[in-house]
Amino acid sequence: MWPRRTFQDGMGRGNFRRRLVNPRLVEANRLFQTGNYLQAAEIYEELGNKALELGIPQSPRLFIQAGISLTKANQSKRALELIEKGLSLLIDRQKWGRLKQVSDSVIQRLGNSGLKSEAQNLKKWLDETIPIVITELPIWRESGIYNLNQKTLPGYCPHCGGPVKLEDLEWTGSIVKCEYCGNLLSDE
User: Fold this and answer.
1) Most buried by CB count within 10 Å: which residue of 11, 16, 48, 55?
2) Which overall architecture, per CATH, does domain 18-186 show?
């Protein structure tokens, strides 16, 4: 998941880096896709802790995915703890735009999954946690509508098998990276 290797793009154009994918991440994504949510959550949390220890930027997403896995396994209390841990990392790193995007998406997913109380609790926690000066910025007050028609992407990362949800992706021009393994999903 985290070491890098340099590859040619097949046309002799410059080098780009492709991250080697941790087999445990591939396993967690496979378990999630097949409905083994408890096992997937365990691995996501383990990887999140390791990523946090190593300073790897994917740690918030891993904790959030562990929480999402637990919501699907009907363990909403522990799920919210892990989701809050992931969101707290974004707060600590002052990734306000990313926090807004991810938190809106998670709250919407919780509500759509019938976990309206959990969605309200998460929103309340965010309201109490995020500094007021941030919530007054335009980036925070925006509706959370994102331009989802920029690309047609696969449903799952071809490198690690992680789910690709357009509303969760962070675009840099025409480039977007997998939130789990960090590999490019788009390279134009």
Assistant:
1) 48
2) Alpha Horseshoe (1.25)
Question: What letter would DSSP give residue 163?
Answer: B
Average pLDDT of span 1-25: 57
* Residue 171: per-residue pLDDT: 64
Q: Do residues 73 and 38 touch, judged by C-beta distance below 8 A? A: yes
Q: How far is CA 155 from CA 10, 22, 41, 184, in A?
A: 24, 20, 20, 14
Q: Are 88 and 102 in contact (CB under 8 A)?
A: no
Which class for 85: exposed (0-12), middle (13-18), buried (19 or more C-beta within 10 A)?
A: buried
Considering the entire predicted model, what is its pTM? 0.76
Please name the amino acid found at residue 64: I
Give CA–CA dist 126/121, Å, rounded: 9
Phi-psi region of 78 (alpha: psi -120 to 50; beta: other; left: phi over 0): alpha
DSSP secondary structure, 85-117, as one string: HHHHHHHHTT-HHHHHHHHHHHHHHHHHTT-HH
Put residue 145 in one of left, alpha, beta given phi > 0 → left and psi -120 to 50 → alpha. Answer: beta
Instruction: Dump pLDDT digits (tens) for 17-64.
Output: 566 888 999 999 999 999 999 999 999 999 999 999 999 889 999 999
- What H or E segment, with its residue span, contains residue 31? helix 23-33
